[in-house]
């Protein structure tokens, strides 16, 4: 389900006025690049009224016009190339982006350099599209869940079934995506999802909104947590996404242990945590874990910073007015969000930001990027069987090939997730 607020702009595109170019933010501590990221984020949150804050807790954040803060769409996708999503616009000005192989194919290359290079290439294209207001800078990629059963239906989004290989993918793709020629700014934010033990959509009468994964401590440590640990510790990911499912009776988006104790506490995570689409609503409606006002408190206390959906926008005001949710938890979440935007350069001068010079024509779907996508596809091919040495095909004996089947010309399907 895709959901975005009408009229939400892409914050800080290189086209047009930027928030720090004019009053009321020009010259403010938020725009003072000599101050620490933490101090800048705390300052702007301190300027907001409670009523201002509510609208910022959705992927389609409304902004606060009176404070000079435009709206922002947090949800952009880029699993194997900048992809269709609420934050991404394809039109005549930006008709396409390079589509790399599905990640299950790229994972089969076992090529760490390739994974890093693909991440770097995708974020280069993302920056170019952001510069014309056609993409955000926060991308919900990669998917580092494990594909242990092909009936899941989303295994093609992942590097595969092995915790070590998936962890290695995260350790290379994420820095490739986030780092670049500018050491002072995050190139594009990478979000590792879906945290955690998530690999069921709808099977045997159970769907992802109600699924309760029962796992023991060994499986948790050996199987389900390593890729996320690698995302944070090795990849320095700037975002995580909590999943729909519960683990041992606790919905992931109210699981303090994985978000605060593990991610922020033991692993040193410095970024924001988003829910999956409507996953906070699911805590209340599907898992029946808490009522609406308590759910607001529970997710923020556990470490979620933003709602992909509108549950918090619709219920947080009441939860605050009843003193169920604390203002300090609200402020902490907002500080995490603004800190990532600051690190992306959204509130910095255009000077010394080379990413703002990236153009669609020069950086998106270029011949070099197309060549890289082809090389990735070639490296990822796996020949399981070669009966009677049928391959390689003889160019002398075979002049034409027929591609048959329901997906022979299904170009939209072949784009994948």
Structural commentary:
This protein is of the alpha/beta class and 417 residues long. It has 15 helices and eleven strands. It has helices spanning 37-46, 50-54, 103-107, 112-130, 163-178, 217-224, 226-233, 256-266, 279-285, 292-302, 311-321, 327-343, 360-363, 367-380, 411-415, and strands at 60-61, 72-73, 138-139, 189-195, 202-203, 206-207, 212-213, 239-242, 246-247, 250-251, 272-275. The strands form four sheets. The chain has a four-stranded parallel sheet. A hairpin with a 2-residue loop joins strand 9 (246-247) and strand 10. Helix 5 packs parallel to helix 7 and helix 9 (279-285) crosses helix 10. It starts with 36 loop residues before the first helix and ends with a helix. 50% of the residues are buried.
What is this entry, summarized?
The protein has 417 residues and is of the alpha/beta class. The chain is 36% helix and 7% strand.
How would you spell out the order of helices and strands? HHEEHHEHEEEEHHEEEHEHHHHHHH
Label the overall shape: globular
Q: Uncertain spans, ≥5 residues at pLDDT below 50?
A: 1-12
Q: What share of residues is helical?
A: 25-40%
Terminal-residue CA separation:
13 Å
Structural class: alpha/beta
Tally of separate helices? 15
Task: Give Rg in angstroms.
Answer: 22 Å
- Across the major sheet, the strand order is 3-4-8-11
Give the overall pLDDT as a whole number. Answer: 94
The profile of the biggest β sheet is: 4 strands, parallel
Tell me the β content: 5-15%
Number of strands: 11
């Amino acid at each position: 389900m895709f959901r975005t607020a009408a009229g939400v702009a892409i914050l800080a595109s290189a086209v047009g006025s930027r928030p720090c170019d004019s009053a009321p933010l020009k010259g403010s501590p938020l725009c003072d690049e000599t101050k620490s990221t933490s101090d800048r984020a705390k300052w702007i949150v301190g300027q907001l009224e409670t009523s201002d804050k509510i609208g910022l807790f959705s992927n389609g954040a409304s902004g606060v016009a009176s404070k000079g803060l435009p709206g922002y769409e947090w949800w952009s996708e880029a699993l194997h190339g900048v992809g269709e999503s609420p934050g991404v616009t394809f039109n005549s000005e930006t008709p396409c982006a390079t589509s790399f192989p599905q990640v299950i194919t790229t994972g089969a290359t076992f090529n760490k350099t390739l994974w890093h290079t693909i991440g770097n290439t995708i974020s280069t294209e993302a920056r170019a599209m952001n510069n014309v207001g056609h993409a955000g800078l926060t991308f919900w990629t990669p998917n580092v869940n494990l594909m242990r059963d092909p009936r899941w239906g989303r295994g093609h989004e992942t590097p595969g079934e092995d915790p070590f290989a998936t962890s290695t993918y995260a350790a290379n793709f994420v820095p490739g995506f986030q780092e670049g020629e500018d050491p002072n700014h995050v190139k594009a934010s990478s979000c590792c999802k879906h945290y955690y033990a998530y690999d069921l959509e709808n099977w045997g009468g159970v769907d992802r909104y109600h699924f309760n994964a029962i796992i023991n401590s060994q499986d948790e440590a050996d199987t389900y947590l390593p890729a996320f640990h690698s995302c944070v510790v090795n990849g320095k990911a700037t975002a995580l996404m909590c999943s729909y499912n519960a683990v041992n009776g606790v919905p992931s988006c109210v699981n303090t242990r994985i978000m605060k104790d593990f991610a922020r506490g033991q692993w040193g995570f410095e970024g924001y945590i988003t829910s999956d689409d409507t996953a906070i609503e699911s805590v209340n409606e599907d898992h029946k874990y808490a009522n609406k006002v308590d759910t607001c408190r529970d997710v923020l206390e556990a470490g979620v910073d933003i709602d992909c959906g509108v549950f918090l926008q619709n219920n947080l005001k009441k939860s605050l007015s009843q003193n169920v949710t604390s203002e300090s938890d609200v402020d902490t979440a907002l500080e995490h969000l603004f800190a990532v935007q600051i690190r992306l350069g959204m509130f910095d001068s255009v000077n010394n930001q080379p990413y703002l010079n990236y153009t669609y024509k020069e950086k998106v779907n270029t011949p070099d990027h197309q060549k890289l996508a082809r090389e990735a596809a070639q490296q990822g091919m796996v020949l399981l069987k070669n009966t009677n040495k049928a391959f390689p095909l003889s160019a002398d004996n075979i002049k034409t090939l027929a591609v048959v089947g329901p997906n022979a010309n299904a170009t939209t399907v072949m784009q994948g997730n």
